[in-house]
Amino acid sequence: MITVTQNAVRQLRHLLETQPTAAGRGLRVQISKGGCSGLHYEMTIDQKKADDEVVERDGVQFLIDNESARYLQGATLDYRDGLTAAGFQIVNPNAARTCGCGTSFEVAQQA
After folding, report:
1. What is the pTM of this model?
2. In total, how many domains does the chain have?
3. How far is 72 from 92, CA to CA, in rounded Å?
4. Which of 20, 35, 39, 53 lies in the 20 to 30 Å Cα band around 29?
5. What CATH number corresponds to the domain at position 53?
């Protein structure tokens, strides 16, 4: 499945602690059609659904639906906080081409 860095875990924990309704929730990482390159990443705080794959690390959960899991196999989820960009970022070996925005990508072959 995906690898989650310690920075991503720390940031998700911080986000969940600041939301009073976050109990039992995790970060949903999913792929949707659209964006400059055909597919794009979406991330939201959400409840686990029946068909989700769950990556649990240090007490927090990252939720991935079955359709998105195909495109995220072997990817790494990180959190970066820099001068020019801050946020969750995905390094995806399945992406043949990525857009300059960093959230849109294209796969070489349909997964």
Report:
1. 0.84
2. 1
3. 7
4. 20
5. 2.60.300.12
